Amino acid sequence: MNQKRILVVDDEQDLCDILLYNLHAAGYEAEAAYSGEMALKKEPSSYDLLILDVMMPGMSGFELAKKLKAEEQTSLIPIIFLTAKDTEEDALTGFGLGADDYVTKPFSVREVVARVKAVLARSIAQPLQKETGLISFEGLVLDLSKKTTVVDGESAGLTKTEFELLGLLLKHRGQVFSRQQIFDAVWPEDVVVSDRTVDVNITRMRKKIGRYGKYVVSRQGYGYVFEP
C-alpha cells in the first residue's frame, strides 16, 4: 500500500514534533513546515493531506489554504485546520475555504490522528461520476467523461458498478482497498450489499477486461488492489 504523505504547517515546533511522532506511529509519512511561506517551498502538491494552523506569523493558515485551493495542482488536497479559536465564524471561514475538518486547540493527539484517518478515507472513497479525463494502464483506458472502458481498442461494456470498481482500483493502483472502502466508493449510501456482492462484481469485471484482469488482485483478509 502506498504510504500517505502529510504536511503539518504550524509555527509551534514542539507541537509539530508531537504530531509528526504520532502520525509516523500511525503509518503515515509526515513532515513539518513552520510557516505558510515555508510550506509553499515544500511542493504541497506532493502531499495527500495538509494540517494547517490558522494563526501563524506572516501568511495565516486561511491565506495559505485560499492560495492552494486556487491552484489546480493543489485544489483537491484535503485540509484540516488547527486553531486556538473556537468560534462559529472561524469554523465557517475554514469550511468556506474548502476545509475537510477543523480541530480546536488544545486537542488530543489521538483525536487528530483519528480525524486524519477519517478525512483520508473520505478523500479516497470518492465516486467517479463528476470526474473527467482518462485513467489508463497500457491498452486499458477509462474515459471518465463518456463513462466508457476500452480494452486494447475494443469496448469492454462494463456496467456502471463495474466501471466504478475498476476506476477506483486503477486510479489508486498499488493501494489495497477493503470491501468497506469499496462499498463507500461505489454503492449508494442507502443500498445494503454483502461481501459476496463485491466479489461477484469484481469477478465479472475481471473477465470483461481480458488480459488486464490478472492485475486485479485479492489480498486475503484485506481486500482488492490493482497491481501491475
Oligomer state equals single chain
Q: Using only CA atoms, what is the Rg?
A: 20 Å
Sheet bearing the most strands, described?
A: 5 strands, parallel
How many individual helices?
8
Stretches where pLDDT is under 50 for at least 5 consecutive residues are none
**Largest sheet, spatial ordering of strands:** 2-1-3-4-5
Q: Give the total of beta strands.
A: 11
Strand content: 15-25%
**Cα-to-Cα separation, first versus last residue:** 13 Å
Order of helices and strands: EHEHEHEHEHEEEEHHHEE
Return the structural class. alpha/beta
- Estimate the global geometry from the Cα principal axes: elongated
pLDDT averaged residue by residue? 86
Helix content: 25-40%
Can you put this structure into words, describing what you see?
- The longest helix is centred in the middle third of the chain and has 16 residues, at 109-124.
- The chain has helices at 13-25, 36-40, 61-69, 88-96, 109-124, 160-171, 179-186, 195-208; strands at residues 5-9, 29-33, 49-53, 79-83, 101-104, 134-137, 140-143, 148-151, 154-155, 216-219, 223-226.
- With 228 residues, it is of the alpha/beta class.
